[in-house]
Amino acid sequence: MNITVIICTRDRCQILPQALDSIAASTLPETTAWEVLVVDNNSADQTRDVVEEFCRRYPGRFRYSFEPQIGKSFALNAGIREAQGEILAFTDDDVTVENSWLQNLTAPLHDIQCAGVGGCVVLQWPASLPNWLSIQGRFARHCFPGFDHGPEAKELVWPPSGANVAYRKSLFAKFGGFRTDLGPSSTGDVPRLAEDTEFGRRLILAGKHLGYEPSATVFHPVPAAQLNREYFLAWWFDKGRAFARYSRISRASLTFNLGARTLRWILSVNPAVRFSRKLVVWEQAGSLAELRHQSSEAKKKKAMKAEVARKNVEAIKRDKLNRLGLKAGEWVEVRTVEEILATLDDRGGLGNLPFMPEMLQYCGRQFRVFRRADKSCDNIEPWSIRRMTNAVLLEGLRCDGQGHGGCQTGCMIFWKEAWLKRTTKDVVSRDSLRASGDFRSGERGLIKVADILSASSRMDASGETIYTCQATEVLNFTSYMWSWDPRHYIRDLTSRNLSTGLAGDSRAHRALEFTLGILRIFRAITISFFNTIQTKRSRRPTYPYLGGTASKVPIEVLNLQPGELVQIRSREEIIATLDKDDRHRGLLFDGAMFNYSGGIYRVLGRIHKIIDEKTGKMLFMKNPCIVLEGVVCAWDYHRLCPRSTCTPYWRENWLKRAVHVPAPRPAGEIAETCGKS
């Protein structure tokens, strides 16, 4: 059994050593591997020095981790991510433990049915207590994490205290981490407790078994400075707020009970009883205040949604007015910056499709329509095809990432037809000079270029940059489309997306092109139907089949550079590098990539960083991926998504240098040779 003890701390370097000393003295069997992970929650004192001293004194036993986002839940979740053990034990930075604490706490987890264990938390009270505080009996109410359910082990029906609890790490992958809207934090908007008990309550409601182990004891001192009425009242008010956040409670019944309990508090004579009942009143007042806050926030969100819906309707109307009905192969000219700005709303988009800073460089230039974009694949939610309107892809135009932190994904760019006008190559048609559609931007007037630049990124609460681009906003500018809707395949035919470009203008050639398009659609539908059935049959193998079996994924570093020639390894060699999920160190190998096995291609570039479409955050790769010239996504396997020119990423394990391929001759030398012959 591997165990990680997680302790979160902030600005408590004076009392932290006592807790770490007591844990370091823990005795466990030699067969048990265990560590202590101390998460520093952005302390301003000497916490790091204290922990690093323990790391030197106990090599391999203690580890230090830093979490910049202030808030205990953020620190706990960071500890869960970095923990190496399969069992995670949690305690506080101001407790002391018995030598046998960790062994006793984790022993019940040998039973596979046990999901978590809570131990006994013994409070160490000061010698003298105020007369208004009762710590025993019917009216015992305080704000310290005492937890004592008697001398016998039993199953818990109430969640244990976070000062003395252990869970299986796998539970956090299934049920999520600690809620960041609960627990101590740097803001008063978050109730400063219940982040630990809420998770335990979540497990109990899910039917998981939590045990109580009285022999696993920790001792928690009660600071005399906190024995004041103001601290208690504020804590119980926050307790009520927290309860309202994670449970359902009637606002009407709460208001009625608050009145009755207030009357009982006022009529009490005994100081301890009176204060105990006052705490209950403050708790219910906190719940009522939180419910009112939630109601106010819900109204604000509803108003915001209504405003967004209104703007979307206006954008759709403007979008329809500028429909050109472009088809693949037609020549267009990108409108001027001023014309495009006039089509955008105050968020820098049209029909929720963002106009990105990287697109400004193409204004006023002419390009050929690569494909009509009547649909797009969605990689944010479970993979699907979604409906688009009045948009196209232009030949060779990819996002260079300059306006998005240097992202290297190289996505194809969507263009609304309102941003384009028809032309022939090098000649602007007479019709394109006429005003086309309504270029009014709404009540706020024209958006500025600076607004487009600023809309591409923002800072979140933790100071991390969140990027916004067409890839991250797919769900906003597309709509749900039934997967078997035949209309999107019909659009592929009528828009010339399936044209090979090899046919002539004769009727016979057009008939042949039409027939070949139908056959390609039939192939795509057949593959999609087969894979859908296989997935519903308890995830049976889909087509193309991979079947990775590697238990330990190998790593090979070739240090490939742009311009080098490589050969893609065989199917068998690639499968040997994939785990059971068909991934290599987290990177999925798409079965359609097997089409290129054995081929020789030139390295186009090394990918170090890309924007995560789901979160908008920049992902940095420890081991760069490779993109190859001319190697693109096979759209036959993805319901003919028009973005088929997306470049798949290759691990260097899947490639090898093409050492026996002669270097290409310079063009001038070839021309000279041809001239002599």
Give a nutshell description of this structure.
By secondary structure, the protein is α+β, with helices and mostly antiparallel strands.
Per-chain topology:
Layout: E1 2-9, H1 16-24, E2 33-40, H2 47-57, E3 62-66, H3 72-82, E4 87-91, E5 96-97, H4 101-106, E6 114-124, E7 154-155, E8 164-168, H5 170-175, H6 195-205, E9 209-221, H7 229-246, H8 251-267, H9 271-321, E10 331-334, H10 337-341, E11 349-350, E12 353-354, E13 366-372, E14 375-378, E15 384-387, E16 391-398, E17 412-416, E18 420-424, E19 427-428, H11 449-455, E20 457-459, E21 465-467, H12 474-477, E22 479-480, H13 487-494, H14 507-536, E23 565-568, H15 571-575, E24 583-584, E25 587-588, E26 600-611, E27 618-628, E28 655-657, H16 667-676
Parallel strand pairs: 1-2, 1-4, 2-3, 6-9
Antiparallel strand pairs: 4-8, 5-9, 6-8, 7-9, 10-13, 10-18, 11-12, 13-16, 14-15, 15-22, 16-17, 18-19, 20-21, 23-26, 23-28, 24-25, 26-27
Helix pairs in contact: 7-9, 8-9
Written description of the protein model:
With 677 residues, this protein is an alpha+beta fold. It folds into 3 domains: 2-227, Spore Coat Polysaccharide Biosynthesis Protein SpsA, Chain A (Alpha-Beta Complex); 322-497, no CATH class; 565-657, no CATH class. Helix content is 31%, strand content 21%. Strands 1, 2, 3, 4, 5, 6, 7, 8 and 9 form a 9-stranded mixed sheet that branches. A 6-stranded antiparallel sheet has the order 17-16-13-10-18-19, with no helix packed on it. Helix 7 (229-246) crosses helix 9 and helix 8 (251-267) packs antiparallel against helix 9 (271-321).
